[in-house]
Amino acid sequence: MANxxxxxxFIVEHIGGQQNVDSLVHCATRLRxxxxxxxxxxxxxxxxxxxxxxxxxxxxxxxVVIGNHVAKVYQEIxxxxxxxxxxxxxxxxxxxxxxxxxSVRSKNPIAIVFExxxxxxxxxxxxxxxxGMIKALLAVLTMAGWLSEESSTYAVLDAASNGLFYFFPVFxxxxxxxxxxVNPYVGGVIGAGLLEPSFASLMxxxxxxxxxxxxxxxxxxxxxxxxxxxxMAFYAPIERFFKKYSPDTIQLFFVPMMxxxxxxxxxxxxxxxFSQYLSQxxxxxxxxxLDLSSILTGVVFASVWPFLVVLGVHWGITPIxxxxxxxxxxxxxAMAAGATFAQMGIAxxxxxxxxxxxxxxxxxxxxxxxxxxxxxxEPILYGFILRYRRLIPILLVSGAAGGGxxxxxxxxxxxxxxxxxxxxxAYGPIPQYVFSIAVSFIVGTVLTFxxxxxxxxxxxxxxxxxxxxxxxxxxxxxxxxxxDKEELVEGKQIKIQSPLSGELVxxxxxxxxxxxxxxxxxxxxxxxxxxxxxxPFDSKxxxxxxxxxxxxxxxxxxxxxxxxxxxxxxxLDGKHFSSSVEEGQEVKQGDTLVNFDVEAIQQAGYSVVSxxxxxxxxxxxxxASEKSRHVEPNDTIITVVK
Length: 642
What we know:
Helix content: 40-55%
Keywords: Cell membrane, Kinase, Membrane, Phosphotransferase system, Sugar transport, Transferase, Transmembrane, Transmembrane helix, Transport
Shape: globular
Largest sheet: 8 strands, antiparallel
Distance between the termini: 23 Å
Subcellular location: Cell membrane
Strand content: 5-15%
Protein name: PTS beta-glucoside transporter subunit EIIBCA
Strand order of the largest sheet: 17-13-14-15-19-11-10-21
Membrane topology: Multi-pass membrane protein
Number of strands: 22
Radius of gyration: 28 Å
Main location: membrane
Structural class: alpha+beta
């Protein structure tokens, strides 16, 4: 085995040399290079070196996996070469871990966009669900005749349900700014500026408008999403620029002043008008498509409708719908119902598949009910579909099925209404319309139930089919013995208990090649249900990363165990983690090692699946992990045979 200095030299030589390195950091097990040109890397040589476990390119990082002694190799590199210790909060002069995470993924723009959207809307999901349920309650109360739409009580409750949606730009500004790690209140002010009454009143102006001589087109920003998402993506680098180059003595007022001064006019001049022009183009295209084929129009319109809502250009369709209503009936809103009920079906499919996951089941049920009763699907669209990309093809297929059928049957809306079960009488012919939306709902439900949300969500139900208990205690023990163990070789058996409460999943299902390939060693992974990490056995803390996301333990049998909380959580730079233990400390089984905030880590866009790895697997006859099931800290998850 090469020593650390030789390994460090070898790595730099085969990574393309010092001149090919922009920056370098390390986490608990691997060196993370940001390279100028990855084509200069001799990957085969790196993987073949005895001091390197593996090497892999991930996003804009090149990762060289060393193991528990990575810090020593890192230090040798930094001592020998003039390489920037980059991408930490210090090196980046105030840049956050989340900003760094986005920058290193610059080679995958689609992932960045969806991560940005998901990270922005995740904190708003409870508010979306709550507002949607109030709308559903109002619909039921008015339909039953218990509440009049003319009453002041209705007005108060309607305001409670509409507040979030009306002031969406403000909430988007705050949440997006938090995700991008810039001032969230400035983000909120930018959104509020677009809703300010004197600004909004300019829409009614009869004369042409301009801003410093530039033609100005005023848009209605209430309930819009797209303009503020784009605005905040532009604002983030502007804030960082002024923070970097403005004197400390004036930063308090100068940075936010410049941000607001630039972004409100920029949004009004560019992002809002873009939505209007796009709306008009889409509307013209729909008119032409309707003349060509009503079935094709239904397929296309129902497929794209949810994304028109996201872009905020769906209001451009309203004049066409109103004109159609004046002529007797509107087919477009009936076609859009295919997309609306497809979203309800997706939410119901999530509820059925993940009914034992309290968070997913409660949110999906709330989304289903608010959609069915009130036609409010924003909690589904922003809470699930834009968060879990595999739902998008399901939405397209199920929405197109219903929309195409509406076009085929010639169903129309005869009085203006939102698409919900309670508004079915506003459409006709009713039997054909109901059949069409039922198809969308059923297809969305079935496809979602079959394909699910992904590995991490599926871990919560991985053992649902094995949870039926036999009649006797003896049968329970026998079944558990048969199902939970692989056959062990002869030798001394050492049990490693679970350090977390949660769902045990195979290491091969972890979405990180280094862990799933076994390059770091054999073990298991846990999807935690709470944020308390305890010692799985009596041991000594052999390594403890400063960001507290990973800890190494060694026991009296020589087992070297690595527990890595979440994926890429080193980027959080210790945020959401706390601990009072330290490297070199002796700990007993069950002692608390680390506390972490599961929900906050997930909302920051990180997976919390946590590998538990025997890093010196080759020193033992066998390392066998248990089968997938729910585990608690006293349950065995790994057996090591010595």
